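Exercise 3.2. Students should predict the tertiary structure of the chain below and write it as structure tokens, then compare their answer with the key that follows.

Predict this chain's 3D structure.
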Amino acid sequence: MLDSRVQIAREVVKNAHPEANDKVTDEIHLIAEYAIGSMWGTLISPRANRFIIVKDETNAVLQPLEDFHEAIGVFSPSLVVIAGLHLLEGKDAEYRAARLMDVVDALDTIKHHEHGADEETMGQGHRFESPVHLELASIGSTQFMAQIGRTVVPVVDSLGLNEQELGSLYESLGGTNLPRTSFRAPQVDTVVEALGYILKNLDIWDESINPRKGQRRLMRVHFHCLTFHMVVQRTSGGWSDGAVSVAAGSLAASRQACNMVDVDVTLATTFKVPFVMTPTSSKEQDNNKFATKHITADKPVVTWTEGDWTMHVAPVAVCRHPSKTVGLGDAISAVGLLYHTRS
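Answer key:
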């Protein structure tokens, strides 16, 4: 099902260590997806939902991590995607912290883009340039989400998450202004404020506060929910125009969920966004804390810039009768990355 150019940890480990092939097996991820009114015996579902059962002993301890990064130089990928960190949640806090630091150490072996570095400098050493994307998943433990937020998130190039994960990350890092209920069906201003808080809290917002010389930094965030998607990118981060990326992700969502059949755009065509992306507010922003944005048929993607950050928002053609939602978030982020390149 995957393109032949895509390499996953299991295949990399098998190729690097043929003697271990009998020990590398597929784990079980069972997902039951059902619509409102679906019946199970005498039970009737009051809403559409999914029930997920996972028996994944290999990824629950990030077993392929070391072998994967040892072999990664063999095929020099144009992009590395990290997912499945949520499977560590069943372990104790000390073990989780240790494995997250192992992830950080492994990422440091992958050469990354350093703003202002010349070609000769970039070619030194055994490492190669390859952006790293982290895809979050649902995590119940606030403590564990905070561990991920403070260790792994600041040292990846790109982050993908939905409204539940955004609310969890915001709360785990100490955010209190936005109640958890505001993330159930968030508006654009809620997402902007939450992302603003997270990036400031992680000290990766302002170059002058924490320049992180020689270290990989978060330069891009792809947020997705039912009614709209948002790509936030650091203007000086070397990424191409995020408007194309957010539009491609939005279209991918509707195509995979219902193949664009019986859809409707429910995001308001006019909305307000708060000024939170600028380290020091201008006099104009002090007098007016919000800016009004408009979506039109000619310009369905809204873009604006504050400080060194550019935001792109695209509405989603929401499916009235989705036929499939499993893997939707992964598909959205993957397509968004496909149309978003690093210079």
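Discussion points: The longest helix spans residues 242-258. The two ends are 29 Å apart (CA to CA).
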